Amino acid sequence: DRNLAWNDPELAIAWPLKGLHLPGGQPSLAAKDAAAPRLAQAEVYE
């Protein structure tokens, strides 16, 4: 099971967050997702 940081600027995903009433302006994340690495730090398998 792998994951990546949802807001990694390298991925440049334009999440449709505007207009949503999010606490602190950010989505609520599970601890595992909050600790997810960015793409540059992700494990690579050959």
What do you see in this structure?
The chain has 46 residues and is mostly loops. The chain has one domain (1-46). 9% of the residues lie in helices and 0% in strands. It contains one helix and no strands. It has one helix at residues 31-34. The protein is elongated, with a radius of gyration of 12 Å. The relative contact order is 0.34. The model has no long low-confidence stretch (mean pLDDT 91).
Question: Which helices and strands occur, and which strands form pairs?
Answer:
Layout: H1 31-34
Features:
46 residues
How would you summarize what this structure contains?
The protein is low in regular secondary structure and 46 residues long. The chain has one helix at 31-34.
Estimate the helix proportion, in percent.
under 10%
Structural class: little secondary structure
Radius of gyration: 12 Å
**Total domain count:** 1
Order of helices and strands: H
Total number of beta strands: 0
Poorly predicted runs of 5 or more residues: none
The number of helical segments is 1
- Silhouette: elongated
The residue-averaged pLDDT reads: 91
The biggest beta sheet is recorded as: none
N- to C-terminal separation?
17 Å
Strand content: under 5%
